[in-house]
Design goal:
The protein has two domains: 213 residues, YjeF N-terminal domain (Rossmann fold); 294 residues, 3-Layer(aba) Sandwich (UDP-N-acetylmuramoyl-L-alanine:D-glutamate ligase), CATH 3.40.1190. The protein contains 20 helices and 20 strands.
């Protein structure tokens, strides 16, 4: 499922009307009819008030009102406009149709907006159809007062396309806006539906197919990460452990042994045939005790951290081994020795995942962007916001407000696959494709969850290739976290809990089947993960 910004949606809408030949009134009818169907299925109510703007979003609301009226509901439409002369052409047409069906319509302008209180107060459900995706915040004047009236009365609110007052393209909030319990959007979700904090005000989000011509959607390479676009690794009867790859995990230092242990275990759990960990020799006893299926390869260290002498040893280990991918940097620390290790590993002709202190060391290397660009094997970086700031020099707040642009620019400049981690994770490819992950939860905001992801990615970038590996790996990681969330209080969740749920996450994804529907929940696993896959 593609994720479209406002101008991209307008492009697809306009071309569907002008080139494909579907009249705008037909698209509006489809939008309103299916929205009404969702409202009737999901909500138990007797009366509704449609608060409509004068544009096409208001026209969608009028169609919804008509179908609710036909379903036997008590419906009133309140139009935020001085008169019908100010309505868009399609809005006016549906206004007239609604009246012809016996519906009641009232106008509320700047002088009488306070009168909106009564219809809102009397209704069970409020349909917010004031502003659509083309709106640019903030809301001003009497329309702002209308939104405040809706919010103040605490009714169940359904937003048409986006909650009025929010920007379709952003997660940030600028001024007064509607807080919806349910949002119904058309053709594709928008960034506002997935980015925090704005998405918290969208409630449950459903995407409606209104017959937008999909060839105009395909122009845009921004996607919502969901099961239908994932590939899963498959095992065959005629195989052996080397068939499924040998992942090499490099990292660890005094006080940070757990990072490599978690990455190694998650690499095994996600399907590597073999996993070996290159670790500081002074700490090898810790790793030998903690790792069972995985092997350890101790190299020279001092003070519990790699030294420059370790570089030659690691080079020989890789030369003699049959490794298929490397994950570098978990718990490694930053010093002259680790800097030399990172510099050497960049030269290795294997798929590479760089995480944590691997990134922090990378940022200190001279001309590191050119070094990345010259690599002829897939490279994945997995920074959180702070690490991305060190790589790019961009302030963290600016990255948070522009995660997609920062990730895409870095991938294009360096040729790497970027997994920019946050409350929402953004994946970008060197070709400029973007994927938004909405899996995961607040229980995963704890030390070590990134190390678990690195181990998963070390396995899957070999098993599936770089792009499919990061897509499936990030989703699998978040799904394992969501499964853990179902049985473990988020205050007590820890990174190792995720490893234990990787097998169940695989089971659920293996059982997934995508069936066509006129509407889709934006987060199909939100209510009941297991039942969705039955």
């Amino acid at each position: 499922m593609r994720l479209l910004k406002a101008k991209e949606m307008a492009f697809a809408d306009e071309n569907t009307i002008k080139k494909t030949g579907i009249p705008s009134l037909v698209l509006m009818e489809n939008a309103g009819r299916t929205s009404a169907q969702i409202i009737l299925e999901k909500l138990n109510f007797n009366s509704a008030v449609v608060v409509a703007g004068g544009g096409n979003n208001g026209g969608d609301g009028l169609v919804i009102g008509r179908y609710l009226l036909l379903a036997g509901k008590d419906v009133q439409v309140c139009v935020l406009s001085e008169s019908r002369d100010r309505l868009s052409e399609d809005n006016l047409k549906n206004f007239e149709i609604f009246e012809n069906f016996g519906g009641k319509v009232s106008f509320f302008g700047s002088k009488d907006i306070r009168k909106l209180v009564k219809p809102v107060k009397d209704a069970d459900v409020v349909i917010d159809a004031v502003f659509g995706t083309g709106f640019t915040p903030p809301v001003k004047g009497y329309r702002e007062k209308a939104l405040q009236i809706i919010n103040r009365h605490g009714k169940t609110v359904v937003a048409v396309d986006i909650p009025s007052g929010l920007s379709a393209d952003k997660g940030i909030i600028e001024g007064t806006h509607i807080t919806a319990d349910l949002t119904i959007t058309f053709a594709a979700p928008k960034p506002v539906h997935v980015l925090y904090p704005a998405s918290l005000h969208c409630g449950d989000v459903f995407v409606v197919d209104i017959s937008i011509d999909r060839k105009y959607l395909k122009k845009f390479k921004r996607y919502l990460l969901e099961p239908s676009i994932l590939k899963l690794p498959r095992r065959t009867k005629d195989s052996h452990k080397y068939t499924y790859g040998h992942a090499l995990i490099i990292g660890g230092s005094q006080g940070k042994t757990g990072a490599v242990i978690m990455a190694s275990r998650s690499a095994t759990a996600s399907g590597s045939g073999l996993v070996s960990a290159v670790v500081p020799q002074e700490l090898n006893a810790v790793f030998e005790t903690a790792l069972v299926e995985e092997m350890t390869l101790p190299v020279h260290s001092s003070g519990g951290s790699f030294t420059k002498k370790a570089v030659k040893q690691i080079k020989q280990i890789i030369k003699n081994g049959k490794f298929t991918s490397i994950a570098l940097g978990m718990g490694m620390s930053v010093n002259e020795g680790t800097l030399a290790v990172v510099e050497q590993i960049l030269k290795v002709r294997l798929p590479l995942v760089i995480d944590a202190d691997g990134i922090n060391n990378l940022a200190l290397l001279e001309n590191f962007k050119n070094r990345l660009l010259k690599r002829n094997y897939p490279t994945v970086i997995t920074p959180h916001i702070g690490e991305m700031s060190r790589l790019t020099g961009i302030p963290t707040q600016q990255i948070l407000a522009n995660m997609e642009d920062v990730a895409v620019d870095f991938s294009r400049e360096t040729g790497v696959y970027t997994v920019l981690k946050g409350s929402r994770t953004v994946l970008s490819t060197p070709e400029g494709k973007v994927f938004y992950s909405i899996r995961g939860n607040e229980g995963m905001a704890t030390a070590g969850t990134g190390d678990v992801l690195s181990g998963i990615l070390a396995t899957l970038v070999y098993r599936l290739g770089a792009e499919d590996g990061i897509k499936t790996g990030v989703y699998l990681h978040g799904l394992a976290g969501d499964l853990a969330y179902q049985v473990i209080n988020p205050e007590s969740m820890k990174a190792t809990d995720l490893i234990g749920f990787i097998p169940e996450a695989y089971d659920l994804l293996s059982g997934y089947s995508c069936k066509y529907s006129m509407y889709y929940p934006i987060d199909p696993l939100k209510d009941s993960i297991s039942s969705y896959f039955k």
